[in-house]
Amino acid sequence: MPITSKYSDDQIEVILTEIAAVLDKNGASSELSLMIAGNIATNVLNTNVPATQRKAIAEKFAQALLSSIEESKTH
């Protein structure tokens, strides 16, 4: 079951396009792009989420990532 976001698809698409352009401009491989994405996620958790909630949110994030991969296999 998809999760409804409080952010518009347009807002998300604009940011993703800009990030993809930066990665492309720098010739980032898939591996480097994933490393950067992981570092961004870690930074957001460490700087914006209380320490008592980080693990739970990281687990939810990981599950959402796994779910999105599983959904894309069926489409």
Automatic annotation (TrEMBL):
Span of the signal peptide: none
Membership in a protein family: Belongs to the UPF0352 family.
Highest taxon in the source lineage: Bacteria
Pfam families on file: DUF1414
InterPro entries in alphabetical order: UPF0352, YejL_sf
Protein name, UniProt field: UPF0352 protein PGX00_07055
